[in-house]
Amino acid sequence: MDSLDLVNPLANVYAEKFSSPEPELLKNIAEETNSTHPQAHMLSGHLQGRLLAMLSRLVQPKYILEVGSFTGYSALCLAEGLVPGGELHTIELRNEEATVARRNFNLSPYAGQIILHEGLGTEIIPVLDRPWDLVFIDADKTGYIDYYELVVPQLRNGGLIIADNVLFHGQVLENPPSGKNAKAVQAFNEHVAADARVERVMVTIRDGLLLLQKKNIT
Fold it and tell me: Which of 25, 55, 58, 31 lies closest to 43, judged by CA?
């Protein structure tokens, strides 16, 4: 199956019109990424970014973890909800993207609160000893289950995990999915659907977001 426009592009433009505008720095990051990066579609963008920012403000996190920094756009959206003294830890495998993200963080008011780690998420997450309030997973799709299983024990009761690209360009609608990444996303969606530790809702914005709230576990 070819990639699908799961959301009518005109509806997306309409939704952006009636959503809060991007802060100027984020607008600049989006413009630069879209004009220079061959995988610019990986950027969260205006509408999803405003949703991430609002969810973060609702959670009021002290500790945020992001797996997959890209050029820093989504981290800066999530940082809008940090409480005073809070921290956002973001992990990026590729040095080129990490360099761009670090530059963008340093241009923001959250520069002192964002810690960027370069390397493999599966190696970095276990050594970050934080009670996460909010986690955003947006890295290699084949690693989603591993990332999820690493962060759930560290997530506070009531904390929120947001997983991106859970519709994977519509390819999960194949029966069964055929591409490597689509198969991995489908496996992840089924994995969390069977996990009694979380409440979940899938949101059909952009390429799909899965919101997972950890139940109160004693």
Answer: 31
